[in-house]
Write a structure and sequence with these properties.
By secondary structure, the chain is mostly helical. It contains five helices and two strands; from the N terminus they run H-H-E-H-H-E-H. It has a domain of 71 residues: Orthogonal Bundle (Multidrug-efflux Transporter Regulator, Chain: A, Domain 2), CATH 1.10.1660. A two-stranded antiparallel sheet has the order 1-2. It is elongated and about 70 Å long. The termini are far apart.
Length: 115
Protein backbone atom coordinates (compact mmCIF):
# COMPACT_ATOMS: atom_id res chain seq x y z
CA UNK A 1 0.00 0.00 0.00
CA UNK A 2 1.25 3.51 -0.84
CA UNK A 3 2.55 5.22 2.32
CA UNK A 4 1.39 8.66 1.09
CA UNK A 5 -2.13 7.27 0.82
CA UNK A 6 -1.94 5.84 4.35
CA UNK A 7 -0.73 9.18 5.77
CA UNK A 8 -3.45 11.14 3.94
CA UNK A 9 -6.12 8.72 5.14
CA UNK A 10 -4.85 8.90 8.70
CA UNK A 11 -4.86 12.69 8.60
CA UNK A 12 -8.37 12.79 7.23
CA UNK A 13 -9.51 10.33 9.88
CA UNK A 14 -7.81 12.36 12.62
CA UNK A 15 -9.41 15.60 11.46
CA UNK A 16 -12.84 13.99 11.30
CA UNK A 17 -12.37 12.49 14.75
CA UNK A 18 -11.26 15.78 16.30
CA UNK A 19 -14.10 17.70 14.68
CA UNK A 20 -16.59 15.18 15.99
CA UNK A 21 -15.08 15.16 19.49
CA UNK A 22 -15.10 18.96 19.76
CA UNK A 23 -18.37 19.53 17.83
CA UNK A 24 -16.59 21.61 15.18
CA UNK A 25 -18.38 22.22 11.87
CA UNK A 26 -16.95 20.93 8.62
CA UNK A 27 -15.17 23.40 6.36
CA UNK A 28 -17.54 24.77 3.75
CA UNK A 29 -15.95 27.22 1.28
CA UNK A 30 -19.42 28.41 0.22
CA UNK A 31 -20.09 29.79 3.71
CA UNK A 32 -16.92 31.91 3.71
CA UNK A 33 -18.54 34.59 1.54
CA UNK A 34 -21.41 34.89 4.00
CA UNK A 35 -18.87 35.66 6.75
CA UNK A 36 -17.26 38.38 4.65
CA UNK A 37 -14.09 36.41 3.92
CA UNK A 38 -12.52 35.07 0.76
CA UNK A 39 -10.13 32.26 -0.03
CA UNK A 40 -6.78 33.15 -1.58
CA UNK A 41 -8.08 31.91 -4.92
CA UNK A 42 -11.13 34.16 -4.70
CA UNK A 43 -8.94 37.12 -3.69
CA UNK A 44 -6.64 36.50 -6.68
CA UNK A 45 -9.64 36.45 -8.99
CA UNK A 46 -11.08 39.67 -7.58
CA UNK A 47 -7.71 41.45 -7.69
CA UNK A 48 -7.01 40.19 -11.20
CA UNK A 49 -3.65 38.66 -10.24
CA UNK A 50 -2.29 35.14 -9.95
CA UNK A 51 -2.02 33.03 -6.80
CA UNK A 52 1.72 33.63 -6.55
CA UNK A 53 1.07 37.36 -6.17
CA UNK A 54 -1.59 36.80 -3.51
CA UNK A 55 0.72 34.47 -1.57
CA UNK A 56 3.47 37.13 -1.71
CA UNK A 57 1.05 39.82 -0.50
CA UNK A 58 -0.01 37.57 2.37
CA UNK A 59 3.59 36.61 3.23
CA UNK A 60 4.69 40.25 3.39
CA UNK A 61 1.58 41.27 5.37
CA UNK A 62 0.46 43.69 2.66
CA UNK A 63 -2.77 41.72 2.39
CA UNK A 64 -4.46 40.83 5.67
CA UNK A 65 -5.44 37.20 6.03
CA UNK A 66 -5.43 34.36 8.52
CA UNK A 67 -5.20 30.61 8.55
CA UNK A 68 -6.72 28.52 11.32
CA UNK A 69 -3.69 26.24 11.08
CA UNK A 70 -0.77 26.01 8.70
CA UNK A 71 -1.87 24.75 5.26
CA UNK A 72 -5.54 25.54 5.99
CA UNK A 73 -7.36 27.74 3.49
CA UNK A 74 -6.64 31.44 3.87
CA UNK A 75 -9.45 33.59 5.24
CA UNK A 76 -9.09 37.06 3.75
CA UNK A 77 -11.52 39.81 4.74
CA UNK A 78 -13.25 41.28 1.69
CA UNK A 79 -12.42 44.81 2.84
CA UNK A 80 -8.69 43.95 2.95
CA UNK A 81 -8.66 43.91 -0.86
CA UNK A 82 -9.34 47.64 -0.95
CA UNK A 83 -6.73 48.69 1.61
CA UNK A 84 -4.36 51.43 0.47
CA UNK A 85 -1.33 49.11 0.65
CA UNK A 86 -2.97 46.43 -1.51
CA UNK A 87 -4.29 48.91 -4.06
CA UNK A 88 -0.87 50.60 -4.31
CA UNK A 89 0.99 47.28 -4.70
CA UNK A 90 -1.42 46.00 -7.35
CA UNK A 91 -1.08 49.30 -9.21
CA UNK A 92 2.74 48.96 -9.16
CA UNK A 93 2.54 45.36 -10.37
CA UNK A 94 0.27 46.32 -13.26
CA UNK A 95 2.58 49.21 -14.13
CA UNK A 96 5.46 46.73 -14.40
CA UNK A 97 7.26 47.74 -11.19
CA UNK A 98 7.12 44.60 -9.09
CA UNK A 99 9.65 45.79 -6.54
CA UNK A 100 8.58 45.18 -2.95
CA UNK A 101 10.47 48.28 -1.84
CA UNK A 102 8.77 51.65 -1.95
CA UNK A 103 10.53 54.04 -4.35
CA UNK A 104 12.41 56.79 -2.53
CA UNK A 105 11.72 60.34 -3.52
CA UNK A 106 15.00 62.04 -4.41
CA UNK A 107 13.79 65.22 -2.71
CA UNK A 108 14.04 63.45 0.67
CA UNK A 109 17.69 62.49 0.24
CA UNK A 110 20.20 64.50 2.23
CA UNK A 111 22.85 65.85 -0.11
CA UNK A 112 26.32 66.04 1.40
CA UNK A 113 28.88 68.48 -0.01
CA UNK A 114 31.44 66.84 -2.26
CA UNK A 115 29.36 63.74 -2.89
Amino acid sequence: MNSAFVRATWRKHLVCSLRSKHNLPNYDPNKMGARGTLTAEQAAERLGVNMRTVRELLRTNVLAGTQVVKFAPWQIPVEALSSAAVVERIHRIRAGNQSRVQPISHDDILRLPGM
